[in-house]
């Protein structure tokens, strides 16, 4: 046990018991971040800010929300939105933050891919990030059910039905998830449990894991330069702050991030006050009605690309039904990005613009995902530029699959052989 | 500068995505329609023409596919659309022949006594209801409205059209026999003349003049217009507005429970509500909701009322959001200055 002396100050009292300085240095004071970064490196802190907003606004909403099929809709749209003082504010913050979180997650992920930050020791950062993305998806889906509007109900109906595609036990699994033969009150209550308890706990654990995975390999930088963080950190501590290639997490990195977060919040509150329909679909302001299917059922925007892959296959192949192939494609798309560190067959950590093949691959992927999202919302029976949406959706789906499974390895192998 | 370029790329792709899933996809999900037109004659004929064009286009498509049943159905649709266009053209030219300016309110009151007061009350003119709300809805499905403010909130020409042929004016000819001959007869009968004048059209002009003369001169509140025009069928439970009378009879008459309108300002857009109330069949083909013939001014009030119920915190939301945005702008300035201070030692 440590030898405890009479404390000289309050700080010293804690220092002797908790080694506060040491912890601070490990977490922030001497946690080194490369100096050569752009605003794209602020996405993590913005995501953390959004998570705090979600947590706080979620707790506020839970004070009045009723997870009961008969009460849920009115508890949200009447009690929270109209009766509780500033209830609308918490609700709009919660809904908009959920939606914007995905926008930032996509930017964050694509930044990681662009700078190829997932290789050479950073694989665990990447995997814990993808885990977070999947957990956030489950969190968003379960939360979307809670207002018990038309889209809540029918999205739940469609998505839970997907598990029916599992061989042999599918029907039983669907019933087990719903707690009933159809989506109904027990479904709402258990998704409430998932949304406010189990999933947030897992997300918090995953966030801690994600931060921890960063500690050893450190953050990548704009050029992909391999920095000796101990050496550069030592340089910084000795007073050569200008010559050192690194900055401490506090105050160097966070000073920059606070600035970006403040700017981001201006945009965020513009959405909260004036443009929230993209986060709260108008159809969901009709109460859930199990007898009346909405004219169009589509998920929130951030699931659209996966949804389009789900319905991209419209023909049976041998014994496999179209719906089953779609389901396999959908399941793959959910986790597909996790394999990128191993599908990239080259060991280079460098921004995409330094390699022509990879650069083209990257932008095709981005445009493909955006187009998948757009066609995920369009009705299947329509046409764009005279071509049936079904065919376009299928082609886009195939492009996605090929991009991930074939083009990425091919491009990176060619790249490796050239050097 | 390099960061600015990166930022522009991020913004460009974000906007591209936004454009695709919001305005573009929505224009495909809800194809645009002609804007609401409060000249109901022009509105009805334009819609009938559009429907005929669509039916013809569908027939062309069906012929290309070449399935007999499809072609037969499409031909049938074309016939229906043609009949509808003919019917509305002749109906409105009939109505246009009525000289509303010549209406005489004094004689209108006599005609009202002879032809209308059997079913309609008119409290403003001293005509109290003869039956209760419950009895009214049991007899007719929907309790016939009190006409005190009809001359104010409904369009004159529409009122004349309604008196002459309710089924056509209300656009429920898909549900009721418009010639008043078959089994499905609309509870309000066409005007057969009150015996005060020889000319039917002159009597109609008189009744309209009378309704306008007794209508309130002062501005009506948004809620008053809503109560008058909508609340005999629709609940607004968030404002504790509930339909009176016999609900079962109402549901039976309408074919379903007319929806509660508390959140309709959010679930339907402002524009949709205008287009729908203006011409119900344009937005929801086959709906049993009649086109009620509100003037633009009255319709604005109905929608303003719905907004005051379904989006009651709009003013507060916009004000607070502006304040919060200003707060973060100021914070950004200070954060920027602090960043500059910290980084002056780093660069």
Automatic annotation (TrEMBL), chain A:
Subcellular location: Membrane
Chain ranges passing through the membrane: 39-61, 93-113, 125-145, 191-212, 258-278, 325-343, 358-378, 390-414
UniProt keyword annotation of Cytoplasm present: no
Record-level GO BP terms: respiratory electron transport chain
Keyword field: Electron transport, Heme, Iron, Membrane, Metal-binding, Respiratory chain, Transmembrane, Transmembrane helix, Transport
Coiled-coil parts of chain: none
GO cellular component term of the entry, any: membrane
Membrane disposition: Multi-pass membrane protein
Residues annotated as domain Cytochrome b/b6 C-terminal region profile: 239-419
Pfam families: Cytochrom_B_C, Cytochrome_B
Domain of life: Bacteria
InterPro entries linked: Cyt_b/b6_C, Cyt_b/b6_C_sf, Cyt_b/b6_N, Cytb/b6-like_sf, Cytochrome_b_N_euk/bac, Di-haem_cyt_TM
Residues in Cytochrome b/b6 N-terminal region profile domain copies: 10-223
Principal location: membrane
Molecular function terms from GO: electron transfer activity; metal ion binding; oxidoreductase activity
Name listed for the protein in its UniProt record: Cytochrome bc complex cytochrome b subunit
TrEMBL record, chain B:
GO molecular function: electron transfer activity; heme binding; metal ion binding
Coiled coil feature spans: 38-65
Pfam family, one: Cytochrom_C
Cytochrome c domain boundaries: 103-215, 217-310
Segments crossing the lipid bilayer: 320-338
Keyword presence, Glycoprotein: no
Keywords carried by this UniProt record: Coiled coil, Heme, Iron, Membrane, Metal-binding, Transmembrane, Transmembrane helix
The protein, known as: Cytochrome c1
